[in-house]
C-alpha cells in the first residue's frame, strides 16, 4: 500500500502509529515485561551466597524466602493502586521497588555496605520481590481486561513467560557476568526495571474489539514461545554436560533475545491487516459491505448512537447510599461483578484460597529449597543450575498448557476449570514423594513435575477468580488470590521445612562431637534432612486437592452455562454502534457529494 512520495510516507507513518498504538503491540510489551518478572523463582541460584556470606542457618534462609514470596504475592497495594490510576503508574512504582530492593541485597552480599540485620534483609527482599506483583497487575490484569473472552489463553501465555523468565535471565547472567553469582542479584535488579520503564506508555486499558482470529493470533505467539522454551531446554541439557565459555553463552543469549523479539512479526502482520481495513473504510470502499442493506434513517441513526453512553447499567440498579458492608453477605450471581468484600467473604473464595495454600505453598517450598535439597542428597554443584532451569521450563509449560487447554476444554466441552486445578494438585503429590524418599536421580523428575504443577496452578487460579467474581475489581481480587502463596510458604517452608532441616543438622553435629560456630552456615547431609517435611507437604497437598473438589461441585452448573455471553453481547453492541456511526458518515458523505454535483 505504501509507495513513494508524500502519500507513501504518510501511509508508512500511519502504519507505524497503528502498530505502536495497537492492542497487539501492547500484548508484545506485556510478554517482554513478564519475561523478566520471575526473578523470585531464581532464589535457589543466589541463596547459597546469602547463606554463606551472612552465615545464616536454614531457618533464617527460609524466613528470607518467606518474605520474598510475601512481597511477590501480596499485591493488595498494587491492586488498589491499579483501581484508581492508569497501568503506567503501577509499572513505574514496581520498577522503582525492584531496583531499590535488589540493589540493596547486592550491596549487602558484596559487602559494599555494613552487614545488615536479618530484619533488614527481609525488608530488602520483600521490597524487591513486591515489584513482581506490580508488574503482574500493571500488565497481566490490563491484558485480561482488553481480551475478556480469551482470558484463559491470555493468562496462560503471559504467566508462561513469567515461568520462562528464570531460564532467560540465567542465560543472560552467564553471558554478562559468567560465574559471578553475586552479580546475578544486580542483573535481577536493573533488567526488569529497564523493561518496565521502556513500555510505560504502551500498557493501557483499550476498547474491547471482537476479532474473529483473536485466539489464533495468541496461538501464533504460543508457537514462538514453545520454540523459545525448546531452545532453552536444549541449552540447559548441553550446558549441564559441556563447560561453556562466556562467548558461547553470549551466542546462546543472542538467540534467546531473537526469539523474545520474534512475536513482533505477528504483531506487525495483524496490525497491518487492521490498518488496511481502516484505509478501505476511509476511502469509502465500505459500500461493498452495506450493499443490498437498508440504509438507516436519521432517526434510527440517532437511536443507534445511544449505546455509546452504555457502560455500566448495573450502577443505576443499586441505591447510591447503600454501604458495601451491608451487601458483603448478599453477593450477586456467579459471573457478575462482585464487590471486593462480597468476593472476600464468599465461600467459593475461601475454598479456593485454602486449596492454593496447600498446593502453591507445597510446590513453592520445593522450588525455593532445590539448592539445599540437591546439596543434602549429594547431587553435584552443576546440577543446581539444571534444577532451576528444569523448573523454569516446566513452570512455563504448566502455565501455557493450563491456560490454553483449560480454555479449549471449557469452550468445547464445558469442562470446569476447578476440576483441572484438582487434578493438578493430585499430580504434584508424586513430585513431593520423589523428594521425600530420595529416589535415585529422582530430583530431576521431581523438578519437572513440581515445576509443571506450580506453573499450572496460577493461570487456573486467576481465571477462576475472574470467572466467578467478575472483572470490575479484578486488580484487587487477583492479588488477594496470590496471597495464598506466602501463607502456605510460611507454614510449610519456614515453620516446617526449615525447622526440621536445622534440627537434623544439629543432630549430625552432635553425633560428630562438634558444636556450631556462630559465623558458620548450618548444613545438613542425607535423605533425612527433608524426608519428614515432604511427607507432611504431600499430605497437605492431597488435602488441598480434596478441598478443591468442593468448589468443583459448587460451580458445576455455572460452568455448564455460557459464562462469556455477556462479554460477547457488550462487544456486539459496541460493534453495532461503531458500524452505525460509520454508515452515518458514509451516508452524509454521499449526500454532500450529491449536493455539490
Characterization of the model:
There is one protein chain. With 597 residues, the chain is mainly alpha-helical. It is built from 25 helices and no strands. Helix 8 packs across helix 9 (181-198) and helix 8 (151-177) packs parallel to helix 10 (214-241). The chain is globular and about 90 Å long. The model is unreliable at 286-319 (pLDDT under 50).
Defining key terms:
597 residues, mainly alpha, globular
Compact description:
The protein has 597 residues and is mainly alpha-helical. Helices cover 76% and strands 0% of the residues. Helix 4 packs antiparallel against helix 22 (484-511) and helix 18 runs parallel beside helix 20.
Shape: globular
Q: End-to-end distance, in Å? A: 30 Å
Helix content: over 70%
Work out the helix count: 25
Radius of gyration: 26 Å
Count of individual beta strands: 0
Helix-strand blueprint:
Elements: H1 5-21, H2 23-34, H3 43-53, H4 58-73, H5 76-84, H6 87-109, H7 118-146, H8 151-177, H9 181-198, H10 214-241, H11 246-261, H12 263-282, H13 298-304, H14 324-327, H15 340-344, H16 347-368, H17 370-376, H18 381-413, H19 417-436, H20 442-469, H21 474-482, H22 484-511, H23 528-554, H24 556-560, H25 565-596
Helix pairs in contact: 1-12, 2-7, 2-8, 4-7, 4-22, 5-21, 6-7, 6-9, 7-8, 8-9, 8-10, 8-11, 8-18, 8-20, 10-11, 10-18, 16-20, 16-22, 16-23, 17-18, 18-20, 19-20, 19-23, 20-21, 22-23
Amino acid at each position: 500500500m505504501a509507495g513513494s512520495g508524500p502519500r507513501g510516507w504518510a501511509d508508512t507513518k500511519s502504519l507505524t502509529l497503528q502498530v505502536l498504538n495497537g492492542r497487539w503491540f501492547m500484548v508484545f510489551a506485556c510478554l517482554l515485561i513478564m519475561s523478566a518478572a520471575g526473578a523470585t523463582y531464581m532464589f535457589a541460584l543466589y541463596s547459597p551466597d546469602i547463606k554463606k556470606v551472612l552465615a545464616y542457618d536454614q531457618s533464617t534462609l527460609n524466613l528470607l524466602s518467606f518474605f520474598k514470596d510475601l512481597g511477590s504475592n501480596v499485591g493488595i497495594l498494587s491492586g488498589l493502586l491499579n483501581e484508581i490510576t492508569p497501568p503506567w503508574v503501577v509499572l513505574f512504582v514496581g520498577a522503582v521497588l525492584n531496583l531499590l530492593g535488589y540493589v540493596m541485597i547486592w550491596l549487602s552480599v558484596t559487602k559494599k555496605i555494613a552487614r545488615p540485620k536479618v530484619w533488614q534483609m527481609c525488608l530488602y527482599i520483600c521490597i524487591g520481590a513486591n515489584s513482581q506483583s506490580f508488574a503482574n497487575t500493571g500488565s497481566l490484569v490490563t491484558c485480561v481486561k482488553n481480551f475478556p473472552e480469551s482470558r484463559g489463553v491470555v493468562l496462560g501465555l503471559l504467566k508462561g513467560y513469567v515461568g520462562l523468565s528464570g531460564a532467560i535471565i540465567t542465560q543472560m547472567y552467564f553471558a554478562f557476568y559468567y560465574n559471578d553469582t553475586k552479580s546475578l542479584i544486580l542483573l535481577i535488579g536493573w533488567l526488569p526495571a529497564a523493561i518496565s520503564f521502556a513500555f510505560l506508555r504502551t500498557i493501557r486499558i483499550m476498547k474491547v474489539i471482537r476479532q474473529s482470529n483473536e485466539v489464533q493470533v495468541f496461538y501464533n505467539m504460543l508457537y514462538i514461545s514453545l520454540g523459545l522454551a525448546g531452545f532453552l531446554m536444549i541449552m540447559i541439557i548441553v550446558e549441564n554436560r559441556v563447560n561453556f565459555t562466556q562467548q558461547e553463552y553470549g551466542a546462546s543469549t543472542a538467540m534467546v533475545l531473537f526469539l523474545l523479539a520474534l512475536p513482533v512479526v505477528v504483531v506487525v502482520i495483524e496490525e497491518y491487516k487492521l490498518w488496511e481495513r481502516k484505509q478501505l473504510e476511509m476511502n469509502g470502499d465500505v459500500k461493498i459491505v452495506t450493499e443490498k442493506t437498508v440504509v438507516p434513517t436519521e432517526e434510527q441513526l440517532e437511536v443507534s448512537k445511544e449505546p455509546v453512553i452504555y457502560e455500566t447499567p448495573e450502577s443505576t440498579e443499586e441505591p447510591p447510599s447503600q454501604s458495601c458492608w451491608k451487601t458483603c453477605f448478599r453477593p450477586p450471581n456467579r459471573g457478575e461483578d462482585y464487590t471486593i468484600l462480597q468476593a472476600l467473604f464468599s465461600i467459593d473464595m475461601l475454598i479456593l484460597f485454602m486449596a492454593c495454600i496447600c498446593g502453591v505453598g507445597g510446590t513453592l517450598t520445593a522450588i525455593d529449597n532445590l539448592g539445599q535439597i540437591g546439596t543434602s542428597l549429594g547431587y553435584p554443584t552443576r546440577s543446581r543450575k539444571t534444577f532451576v532451569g528444569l523448573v523454569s521450563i516446566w513452570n512455563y509449560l504448566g502455565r501455557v498448557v493450563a491456560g490454553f487447554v483449560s480454555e479449549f476444554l471449557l469452550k468445547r466441552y464445558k469442562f470446569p476449570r476447578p476440576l483441572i486445578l484438582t487434578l493438578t494438585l493430585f499430580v504434584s503429590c508424586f513430585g513431593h514423594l520423589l523428594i521425600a524418599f530420595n529416589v535415585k536421580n529422582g530430583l530431576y523428575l521431581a523438578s519437572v513435575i513440581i515445576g509443571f504443577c506450580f506453573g499450572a496452578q496460577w493461570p487456573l487460579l486467576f481465571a477462576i477468580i475472574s470467572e466467578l467474581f467478575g472483572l470490575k475489581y479484578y486488580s484487587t481480587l487477583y492479588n488477594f488470590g496470590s496471597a495464598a502463596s506466602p501463607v502456605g510458604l510460611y507454614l510449610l517452608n519456614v515453620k516446617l521445612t526449615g525447622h526440621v532441616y536445622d534440627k537434623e543438622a544439629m543432630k549430625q553435629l552432635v553425633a560428630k562431637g562438634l558444636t556450631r560456630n556462630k559465623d558458620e552456615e548450618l548444613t545438613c547431609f542425607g535423605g533425612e534432612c527433608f524426608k519428614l517435611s515432604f511427607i507432611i507437604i504431600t499430605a497437605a497437598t492431597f488435602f488441598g486437592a480434596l478441598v478443591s473438589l468442593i468448589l468443583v461441585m459448587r460451580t458445576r452448573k455455572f460452568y455448564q452455562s455460557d459464562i462469556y455471553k455477556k462479554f460477547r453481547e457488550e462487544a456486539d453492541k459496541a460493534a453495532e454502534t461503531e458500524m452505525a456511526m460509520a454508515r452515518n458518515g458514509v451516508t452524509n458523505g454521499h449526500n454532500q457529494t450529491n449536493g455539490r454535483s
